[in-house]
Each structure stands twice: as structure tokens, then as C-alpha cells.
């Protein structure tokens, strides 16, 4: 994905999606982050579906009983499908919230904001949430 999309048929599909989002009531400034987010989910899922059968191999001196338990509870391809369903559901719920609140997609976070959200790097000792 190193070149801009120019193919007319592809642009037609993105135009249709942008139009549907605007008609639904999304703010113009929310449309491209939503489209890009959906692209990220689909592309990431496609990569996951083509990944090796066993993604995490605990070997050598590593001990990972929690990972082993979680891994044995969900075998591939169900793992990838369930991950896609979970991610898409969260994305759709978030988009619904944006629409209901009548607000645009959130502005990009700065690198320091990520540390603050997790609680690490927050000098006050209280993590901020969004």
C-alpha cells in the first residue's frame, strides 16, 4: 500500500461508502477516519487469515501458561474469525456512538497520550480515559 488508490472502480466503491456515511449523518471530518479504520480491520484480518496455523510457539526457556491456556481454548481458524468479529463489533459500536453523539471521529493521540492512558508515565498517578 505504497501508492494512492486511483482505479476508477475502487474509487467508485469508496465514493459510495463516503456517500452512505454522510447520508447516515456522520460529520464530514469523521468519514475518512471511519473508512481508514474499516480498511485497517479488513487488511489486518486478511493478513491474520494467511498467517501460520500456530502463531505463537512457546519454546526454550519461555514459560507461558496463560498464553498456552488461551491458545488451546481457541483453535485456528476460529481464532482469526472470532478476532475479526470482535474487532468489527467494537468498531461498529464506536461508530454508532459517534453518530449518536453527533461528533466527529477522535483526533489523533500523541505518543505521550498512550502512556497516560495506560497509567504509566502519568506523573499525577491517575490515568486519563477517553
Helix content: 55-70%
Average of the residue pLDDT scores: 82
**What is the string of helix and strand elements?**
HHHHH
Structural class: mainly alpha
The proportion of strand residues reads under 5%
Rg over CA atoms, rounded to whole Å, is: 19 Å
Amino-to-carboxy terminus distance? 30 Å
What's the tally of helices?
Answer: 5
Overall form: elongated
In total, how many beta strands?
0
Provide an overview of this structure:
- With about 130 residues, the chain is mostly helical.
- It is about 60% helix and about 0% strand.
- The chain contains five helices and no strands.
- The chain has helices spanning about 10-25, 30-50, 65-75, 80-100, 110-120.
- Helix 2 (about 30-50) packs antiparallel against helix 4 (about 80-100).
- The longest helix is centred in the C-terminal third of the chain and has 24 residues, at about 80-100.
- The chain starts with 7 loop residues before the first helix and ends in a 12-residue tail after the last helix.
- The model is unreliable at about 115-130 (pLDDT under 50).
Amino acid at each position: 500500500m505504497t501508492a494512492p488508490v486511483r482505479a476508477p472502480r475502487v474509487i467508485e466503491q469508496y465514493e459510495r461508502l463516503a456517500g452512505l456515511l454522510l447520508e447516515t449523518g456522520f460529520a464530514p471530518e469523521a468519514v475518512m477516519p471511519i473508512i481508514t479504520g474499516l480498511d485497517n480491520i479488513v487488511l489486518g484480518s486478511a493478513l491474520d487469515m494467511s498467517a501460520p496455523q500456530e502463531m505463537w510457539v512457546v519454546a526454550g526457556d519461555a514459560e507461558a501458561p496463560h498464553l498456552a491456556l488461551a491458545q488451546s481454548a481457541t483453535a485456528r481458524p476460529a481464532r482469526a474469525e472470532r478476532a475479526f468479529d470482535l474487532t468489527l463489533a467494537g468498531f461498529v459500536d464506536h461508530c454508532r456512538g459517534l453518530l449518536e453523539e453527533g461528533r466527529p471521529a477522535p483526533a489523533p493521540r500523541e505518543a505521550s497520550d498512550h502512556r497516560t492512558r495506560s497509567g504509566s508515565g502519568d506523573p499525577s498517578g491517575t490515568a486519563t480515559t477517553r
